[in-house]
Amino acid sequence: MIVKRPGEERGRTRLSWLDSRHSFSFGEYYDPRHMGFGALRVINEDWVAPAAGFATHGHRDMEIVTYVISGALEHKDSLGTGSIIRPGEVQRMSAGTGILHSEFNPSRSDPVHLLQIWILPTERGIEPGYEQKAIPARSPRTARFAVIAGPDEDASVRIHQDARILAAEIPPGVAVAHDLVEGRRAWLQVVRGAVELEGSAYFAGDGAAISDESRVELYGRDSSELLLFDLP
To answer: Which of 61, 118, 193, 207 is a Cys-bridge partner for 222, taking CB atoms 3.0 to 4.6 Å apart?
Structure first.
C-alpha cells in the first residue's frame, strides 16, 4: 500500500527568518493523521535566511539527522562540537540523556535549505553523541542507494535504531529500486526533481508512506534526489 503525502499539504511554520514545512505534526502544527511513521517522527524541510538560525535549545532521547540540500549550516553543541555541514555530508546527533545545540546560517547572502529528521531511538537514556561524515560519491550515470544513516557499519553515520536512511540521485529515464524485508515499511521523501512510483508522479517536497510492499522501484522523470527510509 502506498499513501501519498503531497508536499503542498504539509504543515507550515513561517517566520521572518525561517520557512519550514512539516511532514508530521511538529510545534504548533498538529494533525492526528500525521504523527510520524514507525520510528520516523519528524521530517522538516527548512529554509533559513542568511545570518539567522535556531538559538541554543535542548533535546532528549532522539536521533537527529541533518541533510543539507543547498547552502551551509553551522552547528554548535554542549559536547563542544563545532562544525559546518554542507551538501554531500550528513550529520547525526544522538540527544540521549540531554544535549543543547544551536544551528545557524553563516552566510551573509545565501539561504540554507535543509532537511531535519528525527528518529526515535530503541533505547532511552543513552550517552549523547555527534557524528558528521561525507556521503559516498554518487555516479551521475548509475542510480543506486547509499545508506547514509543506520545501525550498521556500512552507514555513513550510525543511529541507535533499526532504521536506515538511503539517499539516491536519479538521472532522467533511470530506475532505482530497494527491496523491503517482510514486516518492514518505507517512507519516500523527494528532495528535488521528479520521480515516478507505481505510475504516480512525485515532485520535490512530496512524500509517501509505503507498507506491505516487498520492493520500492522509482523511475527518474527529471534529474532527481531522494531519501528513502527503511523502517521497522
So the answer is: 193
Going by C-alpha positions, the residue among 40, 19, 26 that lies closest to residue 113 is 19
CB 118, CB 42: distance < 8 Å: yes
The reply to whether the predicted model has a pTM over 0.85 is yes
**Distance, CA of 96 to chain centre:** 19
pLDDT higher than 90, residue 203: yes
How far is it, in rounded angstroms, from Cα 229 to Cα 6? 17
**Rounded to 5 degrees, what angle do the CA atoms 4, 5, 7 make?**
130
Sheet of strand 175-179, all strands in order from the earlier edge strand to the far edge: 175-179, 215-220, 194-197, 200-203
Burial pattern 73-92, b for ≥16 Cβ within 10 A else e, equals bbbebeeebeeebeeebbbb
Are 105 and 74 contacting, i.e. CB atoms less than 8 angstroms apart?
yes
* pLDDT tens digits along 103-124: 999 999 999 999 999 999 999 9
Say if residue 161 is exposed, middle or buried (CB neighbours under 10 Å; 0-12, 13-18, 19+).
buried
Give the separation between CA 138 and CA 166, rounded to whole angstroms: 12
Q: Write the DSSP string, 9-32.
A: GSEEEE-SSEEEEESS-BTTB--T
Amino acid at 223: S
